[in-house]
Amino acid sequence: MQTKKLNQTTVDRIAEFLERRATESVLAELEDFHPEDIAELLERLDLPYAKLLLYALPEEKAAEVIVNLDEERRAELLQDYSVRELAQEVIENLDSDDAADIISELPQERIHEVLQNLEDPDQAREIADLLSYEEDTAGSIMAKELVKVNASWKLMRCLREMRRQAEKVEQVHAIYVVDDEDRLLGTLSLKKLLTTSTKTPVAEVYDRKVISVTTDVHVEEVARLMRKYDLVVIPVVDKDGKLVGRITFDDVMDVMQEEAERDYQMASGLTQDVESDDSIFALSRARLPWLLIGMLGGVISSRVVDYFDISQYPEMAAFMPLIAATGGNVGVQSAALVVQSLANDSFNESIIKKLLKDLGVGLVTATVCASLMFAVTAALGKPFNLSITVSLALISVIVFAAMFGTFVPLTLNKFKIDPAVATGPFVTTTNDVIGLFIYFSVAKLIM
Amino acid sequence: MQTKKLNQTTVDRIAEFLERRATESVLAELEDFHPEDIAELLERLDLPYAKLLLYALPEEKAAEVIVNLDEERRAELLQDYSVRELAQEVIENLDSDDAADIISELPQERIHEVLQNLEDPDQAREIADLLSYEEDTAGSIMAKELVKVNASWKLMRCLREMRRQAEKVEQVHAIYVVDDEDRLLGTLSLKKLLTTSTKTPVAEVYDRKVISVTTDVHVEEVARLMRKYDLVVIPVVDKDGKLVGRITFDDVMDVMQEEAERDYQMASGLTQDVESDDSIFALSRARLPWLLIGMLGGVISSRVVDYFDISQYPEMAAFMPLIAATGGNVGVQSAALVVQSLANDSFNESIIKKLLKDLGVGLVTATVCASLMFAVTAALGKPFNLSITVSLALISVIVFAAMFGTFVPLTLNKFKIDPAVATGPFVTTTNDVIGLFIYFSVAKLIM
């Protein structure tokens, strides 16, 4: 009943079967595996074994597995396929959206050849159409396969037509109602179809309230709409309102996941989409840019320290890390809140209002932190002047960092730059430098 | 065709209608609004207006709107409802999972009373059952409404029974096949149902491969499975394999979103689930814990600096921020990678292997950063000893921070503590302190 799960023992056993070319045993072993798990297996196996296994799989299953592979492994495995094999063994077994995804990853010169080698000209046209939409738009991730009925039909005819159309569609999530020009009018619920007399015309029972997107809507907006309205599928229309495709929840879950990961990585100072099983080189390359920016901030900080001539007040050095760290932490907190509210909310307060609020939060937290530090420095027996300097600097740094952390992502967003860039090392680094500057400026006044 | 969207103008206009008690105009205005948008409207309106509006809505629509409200506003609005109104106007119009959610938020003494006031004893029993599962388990988020058919039936009977069952189910995502004991055997696809003769027995056409979860599986694992296998709905079984409920993709999208937000907030140093429109007090409370931990780190750093007596080498102070910041950045990068791989991957490498890899990444990045800093410090005309100290310290700090950032979340995970705790200020703060310690220790050896 339950599909089987992959573990290291299974991977090793299958590698051993493949070593002995015991293809039958492999196929028997994989009988109850989900294509997604077979894909994971192919990623875990050494490339030559993975190739052997993929060739051994039945054609349809192989195609499904290929869809589920990560891009790198897919490229490695598809390299040996002829254009004809690619077209007729892989692409022809796939839904239009998966087919378009895989084709779009091929080298430019192969794309055209693969499309020419498809036996069904309709499929070739559909895929070519999907490839024509700009990246990250609804058009680029939609699928062409859908079930639609004409508003003028009776339910009996719907059932008949649906039977015909269902052959081509993997899972029927919605039945769309269109007019004679193929313009989307609404949806027909399965419930209505099951519970109404088959002689009733569609026009009498379909639901006119349907949320759709046009082909040029950004995928993140599609994801936001589907999540907000709990949609399992959303129809895509062209600028004339004609139904051209549909996007299902699974594609949107992937978009959400990628978005969350990208924000998270950005906040953690990783500049490329990497995973812990990538190569040491790839991981280092993803880490260095932010580290170097952080170091640039460190060098500027060193100029600030030199400029104020720390050797005159060496006792100030002890609290430099505290000031810098607090500024950094506050800034990241503010920036993260903004990034999150921009991602969730279509309904935004004004920048001024947000800044005023952050001023309030900054003042509250600053007062708590500064009073505490005043007590601590006094307890540590630091000179009164230093205690005052540290406390006053803390207040200024926290308030400044809170507002800076709010201001930067809001501004980036205004200029259509991903506000998540503001989180992580960027705000931290800037706040480090400015924090130290404030610290020494306060010291100059007081000491 | 498209449902209408909410904006400030609409909110103001509706507030004005409500002011004049022009209920008819409000209802006309809201005719084409999705319940989700009406909920958002209720959150934006002042409480007295929100109450007026909610009372004006037709009962079923009001119930749907209540489900979509945020918890705080829902509590405010439901306060005026009698137990009887709650049961018969709200709960009876809802699916079991939504009903259980709303009831679970009520004060303990009202829960029992509401259940007693439900007219349908089956519904009361179902809700009470759902309330009995532990929080964050599959049982606690599943719904009881589903369409199931017996394996021994013919398709004709399935259609008839489904017609009956569909009355109670909002959207039919899957048809489950069970045996006489109600044990889950598989699923019947709509496609099969549409395209096979109605005289065929279910047993001949249903799909035996079905991924299910037991009631005690954690919701994050449910989300992982549904995302991995692209499931729109997953059946939930009890320990005997009996079908007891189902979880749909929309509940899982919410879980994913919450999970992503929690990790993101943790990485950004926010200790509570807050949003930018929460109160200044709530926002300050969510920020202070990490700030105070960061400050504790700062105080310890100050002890390190005092211990090594910075006044002997005041020129070292200039590079303290650089050393601390780099250590912090590297540590967060490592920790974030671990958190992400733990969240995505069920298939983990050993801790030793991960640490060795991070040692590699640490050495590569450290070499690049240290060489650069050596050149920069030389160019700034710093003494040779200081250049060497900064570079050597950087190497040690980066390598240490990389491994520490990997080790901590892996260890937390081993002890079943959320590894995301390790990201953000915690690792940064520790690395700040240890980084300074390394810096001064290297200096002692060299200068």
From TrEMBL, chains A, B:
Assembly: Homodimer.
The name of this protein is Magnesium transporter MgtE
Q: Where in the cell is it found?
A: Cell membrane; Membrane
* Keyword Hydrolase applies: no
Q: Which GO terms describe its molecular function?
A: magnesium ion transmembrane transporter activity; metal ion binding
Q: How does it sit in the membrane?
A: Multi-pass membrane protein
Organism's domain of life?
A: Bacteria
State the SUPFAM superfamilies in the record: CBS-domain pair (SSF54631), MgtE membrane domain-like (SSF161093), MgtE N-terminal domain-like (SSF158791)
Q: Which organism is it from?
A: Schleiferia thermophila
